[in-house]
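Preliminary data (for renewal application), beta-D-glucopyranose complex.
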Amino acid sequence: MKLYDLQVNHLTNPIGFQMENVTFSWKVKEAKGKKQKDARIIIAEDADFEKIVTDTGFCGDLRSIGSRVEMGLEPCTRYFWQVTVRTDVDGEEETSETAFFETAKRELSWSAKWITCDSGDYKAEVSSRTKRHPIFEKKVSKKEKVAKARLYVSGLGMYEAYWIPQGEELTDNLLDHEEYRIGEEYLTPYSNDYNQWVQYQTFDVTEKMRSESENGTLAILLGNGWYKARFGFSAAEDIGFYGDEWKLIAELHIWYEDGQEEVISTDDSWMVRRSTIGFSNLYDGELRDDTLEQLPLEQARLADAPKGKLTERLSLPVQIHETFTPVELIHTPKDEEVFDMGQEFSGIFELKVNEPAGTKIHIQTGEILQQDCFYNENLRSAKSEYIYISDGLPKTVRPHFTYYGYRYVKVSGINHLKKEDFKGLALYSAITQKGTVETGVPLVNQFLSNVRWGLKSNFLDVPSDCPQRDERMGWTGDAQVFSSTAMYLEDTYAFYQKYLYDMYQEQLDLDGKVPDVVPSCGVESCACVWGDAACIIPWNMYQVYGDKTILENQFESMRSWVDYVSRVDGDNHGWRYVFHYGDWLALDNPNGNIEQVMGATDEEFIANIYYAASAGIVADAAKVLGKKEEEQYYRALSDTQFQIVKDEYFSKNGRCCVKTQTALVLALKYHLTDNVELTRSQLRKLFKDNGDKLKTGFVGTPLLCNVLSENGFSDLAFTLLLNRDFPGWLHEVKLGATTVWERWNSLLDDGTISGIEMNSMNHYSYGAVTDWIFRHVAGLDPDKNHPGFTRVNLKPQFNWRLRKADASYDSPAGLYQSGWEMTAPDQVKLTVTVPFGCEVRVMLPYAEKLLSRRELELEKEEFQNPIFSRVEERILILQPGSYELAYTLDQPLKKVYTVDTPIQVLLNDSDVANEISKVLPIRRIPAQYVDRSMREIKEEIYSGFIPDEIYQKALDFFDNYNAE
Ligand code: BGC
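Predicted structure:
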């Protein structure tokens, strides 16, 4: 047996994070036993476990997905812990490796003062003294024998800390000393509602302080960042929303082996050196001019503290993950030199330079080429560039206080540009991959890769809408619709926890209202579906991670959002009548042109449903937390609101009167109709009338395939997924996308961009269909009554065209695997792995005939009692272990096509349509005839459409295809 993935508050060996409670979690693999009998957690102040702080003893109620242990927490203290697990097999017991967590300053007061320097005027020249980004520095003389050392630090807008060990005054350029960086983090102290709180980080600098030289300089470089440069909706004004002054606070604590402690704190004795960075902001990039002269040192000044409270961090570190070298250096028709990185991502880059002094090197980034040339007009006002002016010395440069969402890089000013001199560095928060799926269709696999890159690109501290244009904000709607997909792909608990904390900080100032973007940078508008993120994200997290701490932490946020909506709603449905984005970007707006944004689904209908649904979530959360009164109140509110929707939008026979794909999806998802069959057939007909193509936007798309599968329309869901033409998920893959587009038609079929007003190639929202791929295609659907993935209802959806799906998901409870492969049109092979302590209920599709155990080859030992306990319902109850089984389906899943098949059905199967098109151009058959078959067209309409010779070829094609 092995114990792994030891976490505290869903973080691995955290240092300096905010900690109200301490929740431990772990996973078990390779055990003989099937489940945990007892566990014991020991926490100590030392790695040898001599100074024990808490010992739970063996108990039966410590849960591996999260066990809170009550303990006092001292400031600046590292705690070591181990867990021991006993299983249901006698004598099987294992103790984990030692893990740790370390507190920050907690309630300790700061001896350090906030300091500043002349902070520049936005209109000043970039070379002016006050615009040159400051390096605050302090010489430090240490004593012998450092036991441990920590740096507690925050700087606004952004900071990078360095320790320069020479002890000399820093005469050469700090920017050339990457090796002296403290901590491997970028863009600290990250993005917040700085008016409410400012995060500080804790860095373990023990090794640096122990290093050879006695003295050194602590140097901290500041940039503008989200705090003090243009960002968000006030970006046009070119000033920072939160402040206009550089500010720094830092304490370097050195503990010596003789027990003494020394603290070096920021104060007005610190000096300020001006760097050669003259400009930085997130949208426009950065400028560094190494020809600038060194300026005399200035004295730092004491500064007013920022408005927000200095608080321990919640943000995960933003780090460099993948690095890319260009796949090609393109010389474009416009004579540009452009690197193609082969993949769109977010991050920075490194460039080796060796040009004569005064050379200006100009880098610009873009997402696509147009007419084979560099293109960046869809970034709108974001310049997204990097300018470097060389001092003639060879060096490697990188931006410090910005990031880019890019695939293409235009470089000018370098003679003999080489691919090897450029390296793309993907930056995102420290999340770990948890889930993967592979199917039998390469385009789908590429789509899944695009979704993951969409996630990585937009998980840079804040769940953002996009990483490239003048936006890059934490849009609540986008975050909400993508959250359940994200939870399958990566470990997201800590990431979303920080976002939700920020959300509540904003609500505190807005009477419960959830602004459209978080952090808001002053935005106060809000809307349904977007603001409902306050309820939906924490509830998704509880379902997936099974730790009710998230509900405790967010309950006030959730409740105050619903209360806000109630107040606006008043007695007259006021909530319906405020502005809502509705089914944003749906394709069914009757007046729509290519740039239209509003869908056809009645926004009032959507608003009322989400109001009711969020109230229901608050009631569910209250139930989990044992808050009886709240549960009753919000349940009644939810029921009333759902009833209002039913009364108003459904006929007395249950017919939904809002006739759009999205409306009917909502009706089925929220069980709004008393006539499910009628609603299903309404939905089916709408699709049929639209050639089985989707029209849904931000509201409908994320729910669409799940609802289809849950209502018996998996086949249609597959048709939608596998459609390679506009509109559909694979259309963009076919056109070369490496991330997910914002619009169904971001690029037109010929690769031309459809518009530049609002058109990103890296918007993860529509990637939300991935939830369906895990949940229904692979079948890993967690049981709602067993939060934390301790029980999964596995009902995979087989499909001949997809051929196979193989998913693995390292869930909070352990590693699941579920795979199926169709080895023949009526044969399937299934593999399942159930983690320790968990259970899978397999519901076999197309298995009516499998009524006896023998047919399932159940003589195999692993399928013995009580595993296959509900034969009649074809439910296999699987205990921990790995299983394989193969069976013959009740019916072949490969479709049989003939000359009697309606043309539309052929068109919907893109593989078949492509093949037949070689014989007969079916895509050119007039729209009014596509619901007819070839035979009907030939015999009843006009035989000239399909000459005899072609008809014969079609007959041959079908014979061959069906026989294959
Ligand atoms: C963003 C979104 C967002 C939307 C609000 C856009 O500019 O990029 O994805 O949700 O505005 O409707």
